[in-house]
Design a protein that fits this description.
The protein is mostly beta strands. 9% of the residues lie in helices and 36% in strands. The two termini are 14 Å apart.
């Protein structure tokens, strides 16, 4: 099984019969419509391309409109691709959240919330320097970033201030708490990356 595209609705909690509170993230997974099937003969690999949701007609470009028309599906809010192995899919087919009915754990990929330009204390959990004892300017600065004339440079990957967040993040092995096929909802235990309303890619866990 490949995976599905959903939308983050938010977090809540549900209670077990014993009264234990479980924090869950609600993911809305509307039917994913297959827009293209890729195969070894023509594309060199096996995959399906899907879309979900809807997009205003005046927002759909001509190439997109032709692509959706060829597949015979309504224009969605984007296109995503999932690798397949042996499964049979056809263009125009709808895939619902029910495919996760027998799945116990999933990997969820999204775009983390952007925090803008952040210093080293917030971005990399650096310790702050002394608040007093003669320190008047360097409370939250990183300190030295180099060594000496040798090597005479700052190494690549050096942890410094810069853009924090707004990057692709995957959280692995989240427990599937409930699958609500009637309302197209998937409830997973714990938090997932991204803001409310952002797109998520949900796949069966690779480490399950």
């Amino acid at each position: 099984m490949s995976g599905l595209v959903g939308k983050k609705v938010g977090m809540t909690r549900i209670f077990t019969e014993d009264g234990v509170s479980i924090p869950v993230t609600v993911i809305e997974i509307e039917a994913n419509r297959v827009t293209q099937v890729k195969d070894l003969e023509n594309d060199g690999y096996q995959a399906i391309q899907v879309t979900t949701g809807a997009k205003k007609a005046n927002r759909v470009t001509k190439p997109e409109a032709g692509h959706y028309a060829k597949a015979g599906v309504e224009a969605g809010r984007g296109l995503w691709e999932f690798r397949t192995e042996g499964e049979e899919y056809s263009v125009g087919q709808s895939i619902s959240v029910e495919i996760f009915a027998d799945v116990k754990k999933v990997d969820v990929t999204g775009t983390s919330k952007g925090k803008g330009f952040a210093g080293t204390v917030k971005r990399w959990n650096f310790r702050t320097q002394d608040a007093t004892h003669g320190n008047s300017l360097s409370h939250r600065v990183p300190g030295s970033i180099g060594q000496n004339q040798t090597p005479g440079k700052v190494f690549k990957g050096k942890k410094m201030a810069g853009q924090l967040g707004n990057e692709r993040v995957t959280v692995q092995s989240l427990e599937v708490v409930r699958v609500d096929a009637e309302r197209n909802l998937l409830l997973v235990k714990g938090a997932v990356p991204g803001a409310t309303g952002s797109d998520l890619i949900v796949k069966p866990a690779v480490k399950a």
